[in-house]
Amino acid sequence: MSRRRLAIPAAAAALALALAGCSSGGSGGGSDDPNAEVEFWSFTGINQKDSVDKYLKGNPDAKVKLTEVGSTTETATALTAALAGGKVPDLVMIQNDDLPKFVENAANFVDLRTLGGDDIGDKYLDWAVDAATSKDGAIIGIPTDVGGLGFSYRADLFEAAGLPTDPAEVSKMWSSWDDFIAMGKKYTAATGKPFVDNVETSIFFSTVNQVTEKYYSPDGELVYDTNPQVKDAFEVAVETYEAGISAGIAAWSSGWDPGKANGSFAVTIAPSWLLAGIKNAAPDTSGKWRYASIPGVGGNWGGSVIAIPARAKNPKAAWQYISTMLSPEGQTTHFTDTGTFPAAKSALESSEVRSYTDPFYGDSKIGEVVSDSVLKFKAFYNGPDTSAIGSALLNTLVDMEVGNVKPADAWQKALDNAKAAIGG
Amino acid sequence: MSATIATATTADIHNGPAPQKKRGRPPRDGRRPIRQHWGERIAPYAYVAPFFVIFIVFGLFPLLFTFYVALFDWNPIGEQTFVGLANFERLFQDDRFWNALVNTFGIFLISTVPQLLLALGLAHLLNHAALKMANFFRMALLIPYITSVAATAIVFAQIFDKNFGLINWVLGALGLPAVNFLASQVGSWIVISSMVMWRWFGYNTLLYLAGLQALPREMYEAASVDGASGWQQFIHLTIPSLRPIIIFTVIMSTIGGLQIFTEPLLVSPESGLTCGGGRQCQTLALFLYEQGFGQFKFGYGSAIGVALFVIVVVVAALNFFLSTRTRKAR
Questions:
Q1: Contact at CB, B295 and A83, closer than 8 angstroms
Q2: What is the ipTM of this complex?
Q3: Structurally, how many domains does chain B consist of?
Q4: Number of domains, chain A
Q5: Which member of B182, B279, B293 has the closest CB to residue A77?
Q6: Are residues B197 and B323 in the same domain?
């Protein structure tokens, strides 16, 4: 589920489609038959076929045509092209990072309250539903999964540095970000090696999402430059860098996977969907990893929703899929089969999810950490430029880590970059 | 242009040398079979039509439409507001645009100039009569060209990696400090340029080689008999005879080099669309993509596309002008 990988042919095709197909007549001719064929666009690498097969088994008359479009970004790009004037699917999966752009233009989607009633959002995490809710209250997507946060860390390296190894003790020891930095200093002093992989994803992505208000005020005003919570979140990352405990290995850079395997760093952020990635990157370290909650009050990175485009041919059939497979029971089953963490509250509280462990992570209580993380997570308002501002701040930290920006200038530089990004 | 030429040629073949052709008017003697004549006239256009139809649909229309979109604040799935030239005003004040422009030209120069010189020298060597297994070497040159860019990017990113890369391993073995190539502007240009060179220099070598093979070998033999050294032959025979091909490769490399996109996109997957936290290797094409598809600012993205188009046309025209002028000067 790498978010940033893009395929050029797909992009070029999407561009051609988006530019050439601007005459979007309403296709109309929708069918009310709940068993009409549903065209479903999903991402690669999340094994969506599993759920579809399960659905077809329970509903032998239903028909689903699943297309794995590509990465999360590719799927969003293809959807954009389709909405701008191509053939739209009946069901489409949208990753949370791409969601604000679509929520801003909610008229492109079916308001799912019209199909499932006003209370359809109640079963799911409030913030996950809020993320898919437009200004006038339309719910355009039902959350399928979330990206609850925890730190993955190497127990063997912690032990060698004289730090506790048990997840409960570790998360107690780093209950605040200051404690985390202090622990890192201890580790680096003892081993001479960096503690954490980088500060932009492992620290900033966590801290900036532990706020009550982010880049926008609740009524949609831009406050990223004046909101002290954002600055504090940013400064924690800068302090971590200044403490000399970061390896400066950016997520998805060429040194990231080797670094997990050979101990270039001992701690990395692991949203629940990344747990499998660490296993693939460093199979020889099985049993040496542990999983513990992050400092502060929970967090989330990623997760997705499923939506129905307004021009879908068979919205009724699409809704039947959503209501069957995304029900709390459906999500619990999907979790048991694939390890995808559910977004329905009762599913997150179910014993199946909470008792989840993995021998690769030394049987750490992954289920508890992840579900607590997303249950504690609080919603904040995301506007159209949330992702542009986020990238600008993140990139400034990346630039600081490679030595191009002085830590003391980083915040000012980040604000300048964010300002340029939103064209202000 | 090519349509007109095709018409004339076909007509000549069928009618023989018929000097009194007047388009659009029936001939005075009136003895011509009209029906066949009509078919003959239309056929050449029909033959070239597929290219032009496809060009108009996928080439010309998107091009013109881009000019149109550039005048709007254009959200592909939302509102579209006419803003006149505001996108261009903003573009010229945008540091990110000038940064991308500098990067584009930096990467273009570092990758193209050494590449073409190298290709020229190599073609000269491969054309040498004494070379054994010439076909093997000629075929081998094409391998980088047929390798996928994505695979090349992954391998080069590994070679230049800060922590585990081959180059830094060698530097370390020599007792030198490690270099984080992708962190600096020039360093990242070098990484990307080396990928571009790796991919294209074999292709250009083969173009030059094809040109050289068309030359009579006696010319070189005569030069050898007259006592010209290999270097003198290269300067006074090879380069002047290849002039048209050199002009062609320079113009093609310019067009390709100024639109470079895939390599900077793939070389630093961690910061994707900006090619580094400080946009140190973001090219114009990548900046366009970031604005258009990363941020859904199609209007602004189109304005970047228009600027890029103008730049490519100006540079290509300049190339052409310079190369034809030097030819006249001789």
A1: no
A2: 0.80
A3: 2
A4: 2
A5: B293
A6: yes
